[in-house]
């Protein structure tokens, strides 16, 4: 096709050159009335024909170039074609996290009851949820499109790689989501297994699933604060039962390095009920910080994490992400009531903002190495319909923090791998 198109363009250029040559030759012949100009005419003729040859060659090269562009997209278009692409209708810079949820009846991308790595507590349909509308939504950025998750492309990109997720139960939910998405492209389901034969539990500190046919692992490390829990210092008040050592990263941090994709989150445990009510206070060095607020402590902990990334992670190999705080939809003055809606909310009602998310963005912005912030807070703010509610393995304890699977975490994974595919974050070397 390229050859024939280029040939046609070359014939058009040659024809044009011939017609111009004939036209100019006729004009030159009209000057032959004087024999004194014979020598000059001969020199002009030779020079002119030389220029025609050069012009024809240049025209041919231009024709070949045009033919190539006609058949093949530009390199930039080819890259964006497999990643996050801008809409044709807008030339604005795309913010992937500025958008809305649109109905898409091709979703969900997997059946949680057919995925052995989904916790029973996250499988809302299996726990009695009757409506399925919450499964039929896709995130649509305002000025770009997120391509559909191509499981076969992602599986090939992950060959020989190591993906690590670190954080709280929200990170574990994303880990389970990613495994289920990837298993839809694996023929032999038995080739996917937990490396230690362990069942998924809420308290286990490490879970690793190996895709043996593709030689890669998806790992989860439970580290709800990212920093170390410490013993009570000497001479501490009686109310102090434990401490969070804000200047020391979790002691399992060495297991996070040498990964190809490293995804962090924290936030769900940074609240008075999980800290002060449990007799836990903050510590920096040997100093106990009894009056330090949770937000300030969170910032100190994030700076400790940032310093660790800058000094310990090989950024030539590892693509680092930090996911922001996930919106919850508790109601009532005490935030203890959980009402799951049938459809997403039309307005975020302030849930698209979080001081934790702001601190994460601030800390990452000041880092000396590239880290990608996954600002998922606005996305989740609309999804009051997608929480577990009472459809869990403990229905007497409602849950308006965690998400049903399939659900919102699937979109986080779609965005991450669209970004990696578009930016070349996963090397094939």
Name a few traits of the molecule.
429 residues, alpha/beta, Rossmann fold, seven-stranded mixed beta sheet, 9 helices, 33% helix, disordered C terminus
What does this structure look like?
The chain is an alpha/beta fold and 429 residues long. The chain folds into two domains: 2-72; 83-423, Rossmann fold (3-Layer(aba) Sandwich), CATH 3.40.50. The protein is built from nine helices and 19 strands. The longest helix has 34 residues, at 38-71. It is globular. The two termini are 33 Å apart.
Describe the secondary-structure layout.
Blueprint: H1 2-29, H2 38-71, H3 75-81, E1 85-86, E2 99-103, E3 137-141, E4 144-145, H4 151-157, E5 162-167, H5 169-183, E6 192-194, E7 206-211, E8 216-222, E9 227-230, E10 242-249, E11 261-264, E12 280-284, E13 287-289, H6 294-312, E14 319-323, E15 330-331, E16 337-338, H7 355-365, E17 372-374, H8 377-381, E18 387-389, E19 399-403, H9 408-423
Parallel strand pairs: 5-8, 5-11, 10-12, 11-14, 14-17
Antiparallel strand pairs: 1-4, 2-3, 6-7, 7-8, 9-10, 12-13, 15-16, 18-19
GO molecular function, one term: O-acetyltransferase activity
Membrane topology: Single-pass membrane protein
Subcellular location: Membrane
